[in-house]
């Protein structure tokens, strides 16, 4: 899966938060609370994690053409 490695705005590394964030939100926790507990304070970093859509599942449906 392609995950956000860094914040697109400020450049802060975010990859270490992705798995825990995703699993806790899918488990029913409030994303705001999860981000606060992970220590993600900047709104640009929060936006990057909240808005990420795992598009790899859509992309891999297509065959590679050379």
What is this structure's SSE topology?
Layout: H1 15-26, H2 31-38, H3 43-51, H4 56-59
Subunit structure: Part of the RNA polymerase complex.
Keywords: Cytoplasm, DNA-directed RNA polymerase, Metal-binding, Nucleotidyltransferase, Transcription, Transferase, Zinc
GO molecular function: DNA binding; DNA-directed RNA polymerase activity; zinc ion binding
Task: Note down, in words, how this protein is organized.
The protein is built from 4 helices and no strands. It has 66 residues and is mainly α. The chain has one domain: Homeodomain-like (Arc Repressor Mutant, subunit A), CATH 1.10.10. Helix 1 packs antiparallel against helix 2. It is globular. The protein starts with 14 loop residues before the first helix and ends in a 7-residue tail after the last helix. Part of the RNA polymerase complex. DNA-dependent RNA polymerase (RNAP) catalyzes the transcription of DNA into RNA using the four ribonucleoside triphosphates as substrates. GO terms for molecular function: DNA binding; DNA-directed RNA polymerase activity; zinc ion binding.
Features:
66 residues, mainly alpha, Arc Repressor Mutant, subunit A
The fold-level CATH name is: Arc Repressor Mutant, subunit A
Task: State the domain count.
Answer: 1
Low-confidence blocks of residues: none
Q: What kind of assembly state do the chains in view correspond to? A: single chain
What's the CATH C level?
A: Mainly Alpha
How many helices? 4
Overall residue-averaged pLDDT value: 88
Question: Helix coverage percent of residues?
Answer: 40-55%
Structural class: mainly alpha
CATH architecture: Orthogonal Bundle
Write the CATH homologous superfamily.
Answer: Homeodomain-like
Shape by Cα distribution: globular
Q: How would you sum up the major sheet?
A: none
Kindly estimate the percentage of residues that lie in beta strands according to DSSP. Answer: under 5%
Number of strands: 0
Span of the ends, CA to CA: 23 Å
Q: What's the helix-strand series?
A: HHHH
């Amino acid at each position: 899966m392609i995950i956000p490695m860094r914040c697109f705005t400020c450049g802060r590394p975010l990859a270490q938060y992705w798995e825990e964030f995703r699993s806790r939100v899918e488990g029913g926790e409030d994303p705001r609370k999860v981000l606060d507990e992970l220590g993600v304070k900047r709104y640009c970093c929060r936006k990057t994690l909240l808005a990420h859509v795992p598009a790899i599942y859509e992309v891999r449906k297509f065959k590679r053409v050379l």
